[in-house]
Amino acid sequence: MFKSFSILWLLSASALADPVNTYLPVPSQAVGPPLNAAGYRVESYGKGAYMVTNNQYQAMFFVSDKGVIVVDAPPTIGYNLLYAIGNITDQPITHQVYSHSHTDHIGGSGILPSGVKRIAHYLTKVYLEDTPDANRPLPDEIFADAYTLTVGNQTLELKYEGHNHHPGNIFIYAPVQKVLILIDIIFPGWVPYSALGATENVAGYIKAHDQALAYDFDVIVTGHLTRSGNRKDVEISKAYVLDLEQTCTEAYQIAASPGNNISAQAIAAATLAVNPNNPYTALKAILTAMAEYCGNKTNGKFQDVIAGTDVYGFENAFKMTDSLRIELDAGGPFAVKGP
């Protein structure tokens, strides 16, 4: 049976004193292939397309007859990315594509050879200019909507579909191999990382699933965890996030009514009685109660389908709940008040 994972428990003294907790077993579909002795794995998708992973992060490279294109360079993979490429080809690395500006995905870019030409969305350059970092060199070429990168016999189609996880996060498509690269949206076999992958735009995050499914791909590389994905993984992720949106919207309607255990009015009154003149406590208590309601309900449906619902399920529900209040206009206890 699914167990509630109250935020009060997450912050309890016992949990903080003993950070090693026991979670649900990982479903077999979320377990990735083993790593080599050096701590990484290379997967070939044919016709010169390869993924490199440490079962936490993922990068891609494409070998052409005129050089190698690298997509991202996570610092935790580090020099193993160069070793992986060197074990496959003698061609030099000539180009790099940035999926977006976050350092956990491109913070190893500084180890690539000098002279590499880097391509990114213009918003990625804006963010990198605001936070100068030698490990994330500024892109040499930028684009607004779409860019086709051709190096020898390899072609990548880069497209900005709108704000989702982070401004500038792009779709990267290899049409010959039918490989789609979309970072920090889908987590194949797993629940999204905390707060829906630390997304900055929940509406765009949800929409990105349909945008991904519009591509003709056989493999999707998503930047994280134990394996690459396929169309079914995208559909499962879409089902999870839509169910979360639906149940959190339902929680808003329940919370707007009196006489139930997530009544916003009752929670606020009880909280403010203990914490007078502190509206933060009332808001947090209301959002926490709604997030626990929808998180438990959604995760109960998905805990045997994807891994990690008990690890980051509450944080995902809280993100959805708060976004419904400030971004998606769910109403409920936060609807426009009558005259």
In short:
One of its GO terms (molecular function) is hydrolase activity. With 339 residues, this protein is of the alpha/beta class. 37% of the residues lie in helices and 17% in strands.
Look at the helices and sheets and give the structural class. Answer: alpha/beta
How many helical elements?
11
The neighbouring-strand order within the major sheet is 1-2-3-4-5-6-7
Please provide the count of β strands. 12
Radius of gyration over all CA atoms, rounded? 22 Å
CATH superfamily of the largest domain: Ribonuclease Z/Hydroxyacylglutathione hydrolase-like
Whole-number count of domains:
2
| Gap between N and C termini | 46 Å
Helix content: 25-40%
CATH class of the largest domain: Alpha Beta
User: How much beta, percentage-wise?
Assistant: 15-25%
What's the helix-strand series? HHEEEEHEHEHEEEEEHHEHHHH
Largest sheet data: 7 strands, mixed
* CATH topology title of the largest domain: Metallo-beta-lactamase, Chain A
CATH architecture assignment name of the largest domain: 4-Layer Sandwich
Mean pLDDT, rounded to whole units? 93
Q: Estimate the global geometry from the Cα principal axes.
A: elongated
- Report low-confidence residues grouped into runs of 5 or more: 1-15
